[in-house]
Amino acid sequence: MKIVNGFDIMEYAKTNNYILPAFNTTNLEMTYAIAKGLNEAKLPGYIQISSNNLRLSNPDAIVYLTRNALKKTDVPISLHLDHGKSYGDVKACVDAGFTSIMIDASHLSFEDNIKTVKKAVEYCHFYGVPAEAELGSIRGKEEDIVSEADAKTDPDLVSDFVERTKCDLLAVSVGNVHGLDLTPNIDLPLLKKLSEISPVPLVLHGGSGIPFEIIQKAKQYGLIKINYGSDLRKAYISTFGEAYAKNHNECNVIELSIKSVENVGQKVKELVTIINRN
Ligand code: G3H
Ligand code: ZN
């Protein structure tokens, strides 16, 4: 299938009562694995790449890889910029053909967050692409960037933020954490409150490590998208790590890369299936 527009995939998820996983890719193997896992599960979702990861690649290369990976799929998949750090990154990704964008200015003051998001949203909307923004800050390690900031999303700021920025999805901080080093502790009453106030669907970052029972409960509170990064990276890295631990002379990169697509794909399939189970 073609890369699906971000507004269309949101509509598709709402109509069919799906929750959309967004899986972080870093390279060719992970991109293929995400497409394969979603396709095997017959469920929709996002391939996403963070601004930080674009150091290794560039938006055009990711779009090219994604188009290739999706040739063998027949489930709706969108391509999302995760934790977009600048207007330049947002623009480059929209121009390259990304169909969904996050602009993350959550480290800035409330007013500067609004200002930054608003500018990015205007660009995205001009090209028919939805934009996600973050209010509050999430602790942990996201692609080597460590954040100690821990500010849960303030419900009193939500309406003003969404109305003024015109963002289409809102990433919230409710005890979710990035990476595998910290333990998430999801504040369900806060999530419930945010869902009652927010005019747009909510996004939960830091999906790796959140127990399924919690996701089940959280699902009723306006969640449309859950991000998974570390679980996939672990499946990828352990493929090579285990082979090396067994044999320090291991150098069959192609076989291990193929195996990594298999392992990461299995993890994708498992996660997308479990979060959509009723
Ligand atoms: O934006 C990406 C995610 O929030 C990934 O978080 O590595 O804890 O799954 P995670
Ligand atoms: Zn995140």
Shape summary: globular
Overall mean pLDDT score?
Answer: 95
The helix/strand series, from N terminus to C terminus, equals HEHEHEHEHEEEHEEHEHEHH
First-last Cα distance: 27 Å
Strand order of the largest sheet: 1-2-3-4-5-8-10-11
Instruction: Please tell me how large the radius of gyration is.
Output: 18 Å
CATH class group: Alpha Beta
Helix run count: 10
Tell me which ligands are bound. Answer: glyceraldehyde-3-phosphate, zinc ion
Number of strands: 11
CATH architecture verdict: Alpha-Beta Barrel
The tally of domains stands at 1
Strand content: 15-25%
Q: Would you give an account of this structure?
A:
The protein is globular and about 55 Å long. It is α/β, with parallel strands linked by helices and 278 residues long. Strands 1-2-3-4-5-8-10-11 form an eight-stranded parallel β-barrel, surrounded by nine helices. A three-stranded mixed beta sheet has the order 7-6-9, with no helix packed on it. It has one domain: Aldolase class I (TIM Barrel). Helix content is 47%, strand content 18%. Zinc ion is lined by residues 83, 142, 178, 205, 227.
Key words describing this protein structure:
278 residues, alpha/beta, TIM Barrel, 8-stranded parallel barrel, 3-stranded mixed beta sheet, globular, binds glyceraldehyde-3-phosphate, binds zinc ion
Write the layout of secondary structure elements.
Elements: H1 6-16, E1 20-24, H2 28-41, E2 45-50, H3 59-70, E3 77-84, H4 87-96, E4 100-103, H5 110-126, E5 131-135, E6 139-142, E7 145-147, H6 155-165, E8 169-172, E9 177-178, H7 188-197, E10 202-204, H8 212-218, E11 223-228, H9 230-246, H10 253-275
Bound molecules: glyceraldehyde-3-phosphate and zinc ion.
Glyceraldehyde-3-phosphate (G3H) is lined by residues 24, 82-83, 142, 178-179, 205-208, 227-231.
